[in-house]
Amino acid sequence: MLELTGLHKTYGKSVKAVDDLDLTVNKGEIFGFIGPNGAGKTTTIKMITGIINPDSGSIKVNGISLNADPLGAKQQIGFVPDTPSMFLRLKGIEYLNFMGDMYSVSTADRQARIEHLAKEFDLTRVLADPIQSYSHGMRQKIIVIGVLLHQPPVWIMDEPMTGLDPRSSFTLKQMMREHADLGNTVFFSTHVLEVAEKLCTRVAIINKGRILFCGGMESMREHFRTHASLENIFLELTSDAE
Ligand SMILES: Nc1ncnc2c1ncn2[C@@H]1O[C@H](COP(=O)(O)OP(=O)(O)O)[C@@H](O)[C@H]1O
Ligand SMILES: [Mg+2]
């Protein structure tokens, strides 16, 4: 579960990247955080994952305050960033073992999960190669595997579909569903609306740091009294974005 209350973040003196954001994401949900470029999605995610501090407001991860107990809160989280360019000198398998060590995953669990997940993502044959030699999509997939090794109660991804081929993207969506069905929280940002529309239990639309709508697809259509697609509602809501 994620509880964001009154989050603010301003860069420099004037760029209000996140402006009084409130959001609750429940266990068992796949929650889509959608908005145009520059809306404040990455900034919000960086605050949730403790990479940057909010100017004000509070963040709780499964009831644990990020401010009061940063390590405890972060232990609940598995994070897939938008730029998968870490640990490039490590071989795939070394990175996965590093993640397993960090989160104290037992050798048996680790081996079984690596074998299963690498097969799902068609990475088995490159596990012995340095991550530097991987494509963007392959780097993303190795990071996803690293995250899922420790089965985080809260799985957060920033634009996870970018760079994935259709089969990998399909596999990832399945993994997200399975993870949520186990009672975990899945939260991801995207500007790919079809993905959000098909996959999410609820979405929030963010523009200029503020949430314009939060709810399920049905309630969104009721709210806007329309049968329009998410795409049309999104375009309408964010029409002055650029
Ligand atoms: N490190 C930074 N320094 C200054 N401004 C930033 C920085 N990161 C993001 N911004 C600005 O904050 C706003 C929100 O950016 P971001 O959170 O990256 O949006 P999104 O992920 O939705 O595309 C944008 O106006 C962006 O230019
Ligand atoms: Mg972003």
How do the strands and helices of this protein lay out in sequence?
Elements (H helix, E strand, L loop, with lengths): L1 E10 L3 E11 L4 E5 L6 H8 L7 E6 L2 E2 L4 H6 L1 E4 L11 H11 L4 H14 L15 H14 L4 E5 L7 H16 L3 E6 L2 H7 L2 E6 L2 E6 L1 H7 L6 H8 L5
Parallel strand pairs: 3-8, 3-9, 6-7, 7-8
Antiparallel strand pairs: 1-2, 1-4, 4-5, 9-10
Helix pairs in contact: 3-5, 4-5
Task: Report on the architecture of this protein.
The protein has helices at residues 41-48, 70-75, 92-102, 107-120, 136-149, 166-181, 193-199, 217-223, 230-237, and strands at 2-11, 15-25, 30-34, 56-61, 64-65, 77-80, 154-158, 185-190, 202-207, 210-215. With 242 residues, the protein is an alpha/beta fold. The protein folds into 2 domains: 1-76 and 153-162 and 179-242, P-loop containing nucleotide triphosphate hydrolases (Rossmann fold, 3-Layer(aba) Sandwich); 84-151, no CATH class. The strands form 2 sheets. The chain has a 6-stranded mixed beta sheet with strand order 6-7-8-3-9-10, sandwiched between helices. Strands 2-1-4-5 form a 4-stranded antiparallel beta sheet. Helix 3 packs parallel to helix 5 and helix 4 packs antiparallel against helix 5 (136-149). It is globular. Adenosine-5'-diphosphate binds next to strand 2 and helix 1.
* Alpha carbon gap, first and last residue: 33 Å
Query: How would you classify the helix and strand content by structural class?
Result: alpha/beta
Major β-sheet annotation: 6 strands, mixed
User: If you average the pLDDT, what whole number results?
Assistant: 93
CATH evolutionary superfamily of the largest domain: P-loop containing nucleotide triphosphate hydrolases
Element order: H for helix, E for strand: EEEHEEHEHHHEHEHEEHH
Tell me the overall shape. globular
- Order of adjacent strands in the largest pleated sheet: 6-7-8-3-9-10
Indicate the multimeric state.
Answer: single chain
Counted by DSSP, the helix tally is 9
CATH fold type of the largest domain? Rossmann fold
Low-confidence stretches: none
Tally of strands: 10
Q: Would you identify the CATH architecture of the largest domain?
A: 3-Layer(aba) Sandwich
User: Mind telling me the CATH class of the largest domain?
Assistant: Alpha Beta
Gyration radius from CA atoms, angstroms: 18 Å
How much helical structure, as a percent, in the residues?
25-40%
- Structurally, the number of domains stands at 2
**Ligand types:** adenosine-5'-diphosphate, magnesium ion
Strand content: 25-35%
